[in-house]
Amino acid sequence: MAPAIDVRGLNKHFGERHVVRDLALQVEEGEIFGFLGPNGSGKTTSIRMLCGLLRPDSGEGQCLGFDVLRESARIKRQVGYMTQKFSLWDDLSIAENLDFVARMFDVAERSAAVAQAIATLGLDGRQKQLAGTLSGGWKQRLSLAACLLHSPRLLLLDEPTAGVDPKARRDFWEQIHQLSAAGITVLVSTHYMDEAERCHRLAYLAWGQLLATGTPAEIVSARGLSTWIVRGDDVQRHSSALRALPGVRLVASFGAELHVSGGADNGLGGELARFAAANGLAVAHGKPSLEDAFIDLMQNTSDPLAA
Amino acid sequence: MNTASASLRRWFGIIIKEFIQLRRDRLTFGMIVGIPILQLLLFGFAINTDPKHLPTAVVVSDAGPLARAWVAAMKNSEYFAVSERPLGEAEAGEMLARGEVQFVVSFPPDFERALVRGERPPILVEVDATDPIAAGGATSVLEKLGDEVFTPLLPGYRPPAGKSVELRVHKRYNPEGKSSYNIVPGLIGVILTMTMVLMTGLAMTRERERGTFENLLATPATPFEIMTGKIVPYILIGLLQVTLVLLAARWIFMVPMEGSLLLLYAIVFIFICANLTLGITLSSLARNQLQAMQMTFFFFLPSILLSGFMFPFRGMPDWAQMIGNCLPLTHFLILVRGILLKGNGIETLLPHLWPLFAFIAAVLALGVKTFRKTLD
Ligand SMILES: Nc1ncnc2c1ncn2[C@@H]1O[C@H](COP(=O)(O)OP(=O)(O)OP(=O)(O)O)[C@@H](O)[C@H]1O
Ligand SMILES: [Mg+2]
Hints:
Order of helices and strands of chain B: HHEHEHEHEHHEHHHHHHHH
Domain ABC transporter (chain A): 5-232
Organism (chain A): Rhodocyclus tenuis (Rhodospirillum tenue)
Order of helices and strands of chain A: EEEHEEHEHHHEHEHEEHEHEEHEH
CATH superfamily of the largest domain in chain A: P-loop containing nucleotide triphosphate hydrolases
Oligomer: heterodimer
Largest interface: A-B, 29 and 27 residues
Protein name (chain A): ABC-2 type transport system ATP-binding protein
CATH topology of the largest domain in chain A: Rossmann fold
Number of domains of chain A: 2
Number of helices of chain B: 15
Number of strands of chain B: 5
Bound molecules: adenosine-5'-triphosphate, magnesium ion
GO molecular function (chain A): ATP binding; ATP hydrolysis activity
Number of domains of chain B: 2
Radius of gyration of chain B: 26 Å
Keywords (chain A): ATP-binding, Cell membrane, Membrane, Nucleotide-binding
CATH architecture of the largest domain in chain A: 3-Layer(aba) Sandwich
Helix content of chain A: 25-40%
């Protein structure tokens, strides 16, 4: 089966700024693909190029079997794109927004589809409320409902859960997994690590460059990190001393613990044991997290423009 | 899937959405009613000017030296630009109806003989008084011509009762010379220019500023559907405004309505379309609402100043008339005055109708071409 997204060498400049560099991406049909990267790394720009909202300066490839450069009109019909910023109409009600979007996509059985979407949202009594007066989390949910109306084959979700409460976030991810099980491809950008771990595969973008792709486990193991957990009274006091130890790459605080990470085989374990004994601390082996892997990845690559 | 019917459904979707949004936007709604009323009050007062070189047709049935001398004196006064071609009475009358000339001066067949005999022959002056300000100054100059023309040519001649000729001035189309007759039809054009261009000018930039444009672009809607779908509600609003002004014109200013109302509304419809296509095009050129507003005023100012609304068109220098001829308002004013005050029919109006269509075609082409299908 052909991948849902298969692009190579996508580039985008804004004036002098090279915002996306030689992006190559393959996303299989039915896959949940996570898109991660620091602010301004080019996630939104990449997603916009995939659905034809921005024209790549160069590159080639296809999306749902259509050419990304020439057939964006056909791609749009089968893509549900949820923008990062709320982009439904504030001065239309919930029902009017859904109805308008359904008309734009020429949804069959329009009013049934809209009623169904409102019921699924649990907004039955509130369909006359203006979208602009919804709380942030509800706006996100409404946007998702709007981009599912025309039963798209590919969902492009740009930070869909920003500002959404934990329960709603969990429901949201359950829904994403159901859609994926039904064969819908989902590309979702996020800053949350727990969400990243729920994805089948991930891509990590920084300064417009793809730094890593793979399953969460692959990305962690590719960094070759070893992590120790240091505990003890007033452990935070020692964080700068620990950072200065040879071979330490990351030190992160978690409540009464410090997570110290370094390369796999450089004798850091012995070094830490000596430090802990001297300061009355306890050391135990831990597991490097996805977050450790991403931060390590970013620290060890530099902005090609700054160089 | 039938793409044609699909696109019609999308088109209706856009129209419905615009209507709902308009209904919720109180300020815009206030503008629709407020602007016509405000402008009626503001522009009810005319601004006085004294244009020269007004086009004049002369019908000389008796081409003797005395009549020629009188015409020469008219030219010397600089108020008249006399057409050189000899004209028949019927032809001159048509030119007056079409607005090609403002005056028709006719000399009777036995003018010279009657003058010499001291019979005080009449000179008939027909004035197109739809724009009374333009005609006023020139008419008063004509009244002073007379003895000073003939006395040097006829030595020893004594005009009877101090007057050698009888000047018969016929004010056509607006005999009482009321400027509100002229201003009120013009107001229809000015109000439509201002509100139609501005409201649609804001329509697209508003989407862009609020971020909803991204959502609209992500749907299969085409530029043509979006642009035309957004202007339809404003066509109805424009027709509503025209009705308001016409009612005021009829019942407050007592402006006569000679021609066909149906024809008037047809012309208004075309003019509204011209302004809306311009507005929607500006709107896709502008980056934000402020820019759209600035562009609107950049268009609105020459429209008001150079179209013949504020100052008589013929009183303007050539370069200004050239700019004026490119503005839809200029042609619209002539058309509306022609219908309302002269009762002109469609044949007479054609020369000023095609420029409106040309304007729409050119601007719409530019708009669809510059519509940005992407966000960059
Ligand atoms: N329309 C634009 N014009 C100019 N520069 C832009 C435009 N859109 C984005 N950029 C720049 O491109 C870079 C990438 O932006 P983008 O929105 O893709 O980042 P992102 O990864 O989505 O960030 P975030 O996590 O904050 O949403 C940024 O430096 C941004 O300033
Ligand atoms: Mg973004």
